[in-house]
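Collaborator request log, item 7. Partner lab (contact: R.S.) asked for a structural prediction of Glycerophosphodiester phosphodiesterase to inform their binding assays.
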Amino acid sequence: MQKKPNNRLKLIQILILCVSGIFLNSEAKSQNTKHNHIYLETFDELQQFLSYQGDNFHLISAHRGGPENNMPENCIATFENTINHTPSILEVDPRYTKDSVVILLHDPSLERTTTGKGKISDFTFSELNRLKLKDLNGNVTNYGIPTLNEALQWAKGKAILLLDKKDVSIKKRLEIVEKNNAEAYTIVSAYSFKDAKTCYNLNKNIMMQVFIGSPEKVLEFDNTEIPWSNIIAFVGHQQPEKKEVIDMIHKRGAICIMGTSRNLDLLISKGEVKDIESLKKDYEDLLKLGIDALETDIPVQLSKILTLTTEESTKFKYLH
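Returned to partner:
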């Protein structure tokens, strides 16, 4: 006599497979994001994390948050995607709406990055809230335009936000940081020493990115009376002509950040170089030169070819 199939046994087997699949997927996701969150609770910890220790610790700064296919720039979902692959500073672009809400959008107009048309400043936040963001290829996504407040609330315990200027003054950006109690995980970009002094005089517990690309600028910044422990130094979008500037900045306890978005990254994004591995030495040479953080358009791809830190670093304790 032919036995009847044991439906109960089959059901149990299916359930076991499903649970196993969920567990494995969860474990894979956990491993993927392990040590990619930057967990900082105080401004003192931020200062420590962004100070120069000479212990081979490097960072990626994701330009516009690190957009990819289906992941728009200046979008919280994109930020999540970036930190799923690497600990990161996330550079974002604040802009005013018509009714003075500070949102994140790079261009002054809407066409390139959203489903809207016209100038941002001609629309209220309520009107802009109906739009969807586009990815780098112009594909419409399901994501809307975030506010700076939303980004600051999201970033706590996960990443460091770097607030560019665009049309929002340093005083206003600082005010929003303070209202969100976000001094422990925010950097404010200062495009002049005057702006840096304004910001520091308003709040001594604020980290700034200041443009210091030459030995002469290092000496000039010495005279501002702003502690070097309150800044990271942006040395430019090209390798500094004189390595001396990097050594001078390090001697003062600050780290150096350099942009690769206008040079090496373009070779990849424009398709001139097909395999990023072929550029590995070029990026590594910048780190060996003394560049501590790379501002890049391709943070996910870079995270796959560069060793940025090890557990021996004194700063590794801040990565979760």
